[in-house]
Amino acid sequence: MRRWAAFILAACTVASHASAQEPGTVHPSVIIAPVGLVQMHPGATAKIEMDLRVGDGFHINSNRPKSDLLIPTTLKLTAPQPIAVASIQYPPGEDQSFPFAPSEKLSVYSGDFSLSVVLKTAPKAPAGTYTVSGDLRYQACDKRACYPPKSMPVQFQVTVK
To answer: In angstroms, rounded to a whole number, what is the distance separating the alpha carbons of residues 11 and 5?
Structure first.
C-alpha cells in the first residue's frame, strides 16, 4: 500500500511540475514506483515487478521498436555478489500510428506498465542487505516529435535472510 501511495505522490508531483511550466514547454515524464521490500533466502529466486508510468500525452519506444532508428527502452541492472540479475522481461509494446508517421505502426509503451526482474541468490549467500542499481534508458515522444533519450537511475534493496 505504501508503494502505491509513494507512486501516486510522485505522479502528482510530476503533474504539478508539468502544469507549472511555461505554455508550450511541456516535458515528457516517466516515473518508476519504488520497489517494495525484497527478501530472499540463499539459493532462492525472486520475481520483482517494476511499475512505470508514462505521462499523459506521451509514449516511449518499446524494448523492441519496429525501426532501427528508434531507441529501445532498456533496463540495465547490476547486483553485488551474492545476488545476480537472472533476467529482465519487458511487456510487448502497443502498436500505434502517429501524425509524424501515419502509415507506420510503432511499438510503444504508454500509461502504466511493468517490467519483471528475476533475481537469484547464491546457495551460500550470507545474510545481509544488498543494493541493486542501474538505469532505465528510454526515448519519449508525443504525437508530433521525439525528445532526446534519457536515462533514469534505478536502485532498490534486497535482504538475504
So the answer is: 10
Alpha-carbon span 115 to 72, nearest angstrom: 14
Q: Which residues, other chains included, contact 61 with Cβ-Cβ below 8 Å and sequence gap of 6+?
A: 70, 71, 72, 73, 93, 106, 107, 108, 109, 138, 139, 141
Beta strand pairing call for 128-138 and 30-32: unpaired
Helix (H, G, I), strand (E, B) or coil at 101: strand
| CATH assignment of the domain containing 76 | 2.60.40
The string of pLDDT tens digits covering residues 57-68 is 999 999 999 888
Rounded to two decimals, the pTM is 0.82
Question: Which position has the higher pLDDT, 104 or 95?
Answer: 95
How many domains in the chain?
A: 1
